[in-house]
Amino acid sequence: MNNKSNKVNAAITIIGNEILSGRTQDTNLTYISKWLNKLGVRVEEVRVIPDDEKIIIRNVNELRKKFNYVFTTGGIGPTHDDITTESVAKAFNLEYVYHKEAYSLLEKYYSPEKFNEGRKKMAKLPSKSKLIYNPSSGAPGFIVENVFCLPGVPSILRSMLGGLKNEIAGGKTILSKTVNLKTVESEIARSLTEVQKKNKDVEIGSYPFFRSGKIGVSIVLRSENQKKIDKCNLEILRFVSEKNISLID
């Protein structure tokens, strides 16, 4: 696996034509990223791709070799366009078969008359899959090696992440601090660049905003070391004070 930084990293692949068309707004990315950060896993790449078998296979194979963990969302449901599961099986050259435990879980979850072909389809997984249990709606996700496949429905996905903590070997927790300023980026760009040059172990992001009638900039500091964040924060507050820029709570 190519991980030159020796840090624990991940990629997220959001699968679904409905996301690309704009019909559905994705909220899973933010939730998964924050959850991984707390476990010491840095999300370094995100892709949004269609429900297309060849594209899914290509992306899974590219990302699983490049990152410690790959998370996919979407396309593991009961309908004809839910093709993620079979595509992942093909990416790993595994059989796409009924998983005994998944089948048993779904059989118990649904009454006999409601356990139809569509619901049985959700028990078909790549052979050698490990289940991700679903406390919300029964249908499990699955893990193959370092690829974690989750549903696209946000409430269900969130309920399933809690059971994955023991599956993730993370690094140090990625800490963050946000400083909100009443200013524009051009006013602080040079000073912020100087702070970044002196604090290479702290990731500094600058994000303009307009909310509640206020124009401002959020400066986000991220590092595994709280002391380095605090030092960086003091340097930012120093030039903010010199420029008479107001802080926004």
**What string, H for helix and E for strand, traces the elements in order?**
EHHEHEHEHHEEEEHEHEEHE
Structural shape: elongated
Helix content bin: 25-40%
Which structural class fits the helix and strand makeup? alpha/beta
CATH topology of the largest domain, what is it called?
Molybdenum Cofactor Biosythetic Enzyme, Chain A
Assign the CATH architecture of the largest domain: 3-Layer(aba) Sandwich
* Main pleated-sheet profile: 6 strands, mixed
Question: CATH H-level name of the largest domain... which superfamily?
Answer: MoaB/Mog-like domain
Alpha carbon gap, first and last residue: 43 Å
Read across the widest sheet, the strand sequence of neighbours is 2-1-3-8-7-6
Query: How many discrete structural domains?
Result: 2
Summarize the structure.
This protein is of the alpha/beta class and 249 residues long.
Overview of the molecule:
- Helix 3 crosses helix 4 and helix 8 packs across helix 9.
- The longest helix is centred in the last third of the chain and has 17 residues.
- The protein has 249 residues and is α/β, with parallel strands linked by helices.
- It folds into two domains: 159 residues, Molybdenum Cofactor Biosythetic Enzyme, Chain A, CATH 3.40.980.10; 73 residues, Ribosomal protein S10 (Alpha-Beta Plaits, 2-Layer Sandwich), CATH 3.30.70.
- The strands form three sheets. Strands 2-1-3-8-7-6 form a six-stranded mixed beta sheet, sandwiched between helices. The protein has a four-stranded antiparallel beta sheet with strand order 10-11-9-12, with helices on one face. It has a two-stranded antiparallel ribbon with strand order 4-5.
- It is built from nine helices and twelve strands.
